[in-house]
Write a structure and sequence with these properties.
The chain is built from ten helices and 21 strands. It has 674 residues and is of the alpha+beta class. Strand 5 and strand 6 form a beta hairpin. The longest helix has 42 residues.
């Protein structure tokens, strides 16, 4: 049961791995300070803030936002730390509110990693204060407790930090405000106000930044001069995207989301948000958006019909629930058909066990009766399956148009209003999953971020129908798939927080890579030749080593100044062309150790091409998630083992959406670097 705290009240904590979730009516800065047994902060290195968001056992948000999640691992805190204070402050110089009395009372909740609330506190009674200590996690006799503080400071962060004994409080406050100011252009709008019945849940605010004053002309232009291209990547300036080959799988037309009727937002009675096989519990469901279903009729599906603290989280959980529902209903149908087949065989064996009944009217009647029972059972199972598929299809038609860019297909209109995001989303879409019985219904395949494993895009497999596609066409389509996934990752990360490197030793992927090169989102041209392979692998391997040593030594802030701290993605085309034994070893090292420190691998390769290495590369292939550039039924779920058909998320043929998105990503990156 959740403990509703009042100011000064404490509550024991039964877990050491926690989240503190903050909901506010306006963007606020969230941070935390560590203090010793006397309650003093020993230095700036004991303060987690947007400019230094990570400390041992503690991570805070890097931006000002209306909703925050602060992650804590209390056992990982330094032994000298006895108290952790959660801070909230209003951004300065933004034209927004300058005192908490002018905004809705912030709400903070301590939750487990599963989202279950342990304790909550609403910060009421604030007026002229612009910074406040919301909560305090403190150690008492080897156990941790949480206390509601609510201590505000009219002097802002400088006064708050000074009160905690920090000598350089004013300088650090200036550093925090400067870090926040750099991200103001990406700040989200405020979420809707609380409902009258005291509902504390909030939907994620939709990003709605104003016009970008820096976009006054076209994208990056080609440099002058008449030097002829030296590699396939010495390309001219921005131009149109090369259309995907006609007839490519995954580029087929899909239902136009703009024709799907959205649920009405008119006032009315509450909606039944329940869904077969799924429960919705705390946090509370979103406000009603449609009148209730008529008696005897099924309630209409609603986008966001799942638990979560933001609309993105609700939609993610809803998509996952749809996937589970489809797996269960197909498993039930297959089980019913298997039972009907087995029952018919047993009845036939029993009826015909007497040789005298094998001929004549008695035998024919037994066979007809057994087949009629079989058909009746199969028809009942099919009717149940069709009912569930119809409901899931109706839900998909509502959910798909409501998906944010990270979850949306490339032909979703949401991409036409794309703006670089402020925060990293929960997941990213890499394709769609379906089963033979599901007909046209498919479920988005979402991968959690940051990526926990690399991707292997197989360029050497046959199409799903068993016909062999042209080898060159498959390789081109596999590289197009890699570029689409890389562009999506670049688009869903905030500016400056994701970097892509490319190894294309033979230059065979130049046509597919052209949009990345022309837009300028790559920090350098794709590496070609053995020397290029060696250089890129050496730099990324060194980065993994440095970050691992810093983390193991508890000195994450001592990394070299020039080190790129963004997540890194390495695309390798036509492996193992251009790789010697040392390069192969480095690649395996990146696949094994890279994801834990922000280095990810995406390989475009045919496993048969690497057969000469024998079993040496088997661990590499097993560490990657294999996906295909054409529909293929190779993925299995962990519950019933269905063979799911995977269809990649590709750019529609002749669409310019990729070029527009990459242009905005590059422009946001240039502004971030200033």
């Amino acid at each position: 049961m959740t403990a509703e705290l009042v100011r000064g009240q404490n509550h024991p904590l039964s877990q050491v791995r926690l989240e503190v979730r903050v909901s506010a009516g306006k963007p606020v800065v969230a941070g935390a300070t560590l203090s010793d047994e006397q309650g003093r902060v020993r230095g700036a290195e004991w303060v987690a803030h947007p400019g230094a968001p990570t400390l041992p056992g503690l991570e805070v948000s890097q931006q000002a936002a209306a909703d925050h999640r602060l992650a804590f691992d209390l056992d990982a805190l330094p032994p000298a730390v006895h108290r952790v204070s959660v801070l909230l402050a209003l951004p300065t110089g933004t034209g927004g509110p300058v005192r908490f009395g002018a905004v809705a009372a912030p709400f903070v909740a301590v939750t487990g990693l599963d989202g279950a609330e342990i304790a909550s506190y609403t910060l009421t009674g604030l007026d002229a204060e612009s910074a406040v200590v919301a909560l305090e996690l403190y150690r008492r006799q080897d156990a941790w407790k949480v206390r509601a503080i609510g201590q505000g400071y009219a002097g802002g962060l400088a006064e708050l930090l000074g009160d905690q004994g920090l000598p350089e409080a004013r300088q650090l406050a200036g550093t925090i405000n400067e870090a926040v100011a750099q991200g103001l252009a990406r700040s989200v709008a405020a979420p809707p106000p609380r409902t009258p019945d005291g509902d504390r849940s909030r939907q994620a605010a939709t990003s709605a930044p104003g016009p970008d004053p820096s976009r006054t002309g076209p994208g990056p232009q080609a440099s002058g001069g008449t030097t002829p291209p030296q590699t396939p990547y010495d390309l001219p300036g921005p131009g149109s995207v090369t259309p995907a080959p006609a007839g490519c799988a995954g580029g087929a037309a899909q239902t136009d989301p703009s024709t799907v009727t959205q649920p009405s937002s008119a006032a009315g009675g509450p909606v039944d948000y329940s869904h077969p096989g799924r429960r919705t519990s705390a946090p509370p469901p979103p406000p009603p958006t449609a009148p209730p279903a008529e008696p005897g009729r099924t309630a209409q599906p609603v986008a966001g019909d799942a638990t979560g603290w933001s609309m993105d989280e609700r939609l993610y959980n809803q998509v996952w629930g749809m996937f589970e529902d489809l797996a269960r209903t197909v498993a039930a149908y297959r089980s019913a058909v298997d039972f009907a087949d087995s029952r018919m065989e047993k009845e036939l064996d029993h009826a015909l066990s007497d040789p005298r009944s094998r001929i004549g009217g008695q035998g024919d009647a037994a066979r007809d009766a057994a087949r009629a029972k079989h058909a009746d059972l199969v028809d009942q199972a099919r009717a149940a399956l069709d009912r569930d598929l119809a409901q899931l299809t109706a839900e998909a038609e509502v959910v798909e148009p409501a998906l944010p860019t990270a979850y949306a297909s490339w032909d979703n209109p949401v991409w036409h209003g794309y703006r670089p995001p402020m925060e990293i989303p929960m997941a990213v879409r890499i394709g769609d999953l379906s089963l033979p019985e599901s007909g046209t219904l498919s479920i988005p395949m979402l991968m959690r971020l940051p990526l926990e494993r690399g991707l292997w895009i197989d360029s050497g497999r046959a199409a799903l129908d068993g016909t062999l596609a042209d080898c060159d066409q498959l390789r081109r389509l596999a590289m197009d798939t890699a570029v689409a996934h890389a562009a999506r990752l670049l688009a869903v990360y905030p500016a400056g927080e994701f970097t892509v490197h490319v190894i294309d030793a033979a230059g065979a992927g130049a046509p597919s890579l052209a949009p990345l090169v022309r837009s300028g989102v790559l920090p350098g041209p794709p590496a070609v030749g053995a020397a290029g392979v060696t250089d890129v692998l050496a730099r990324l391997t060194q980065r993994v080593d440095l970050v691992q040593m810093a983390l193991r030594g508890g000195a994450a802030d001592s990394l070299p100044p020039g080190l790129d701290t963004a997540e890194q993605l390495l695309i390798v085309n036509d492996f193992p062309h251009g790789f010697d034994d040392r390069a192969v070893t480095q690649l395996r090292y990146l696949a094994d150790e890279g994801p834990s420190v922000g280095v990810h691998l995406m390989m475009v390769a045919d496993r048969e091409d690497a057969a000469a290495y024998g079993p040496l590369l088997d661990p590499l292939w097993r560490s990657l998630l294999r996906i295909t550039p054409v529909p293929d039924d190779h993925l299995a779920d962990p519950w019933v083992g269905h063979a799911w058909t995977f269809e990649p998320s590709l750019i529609p043929a002749a669409s310019q959406v990729l070029e527009r998105v990459l242009t905005q990503v590059a422009a946001a990156g240039r502004r971030w670097d200033r």
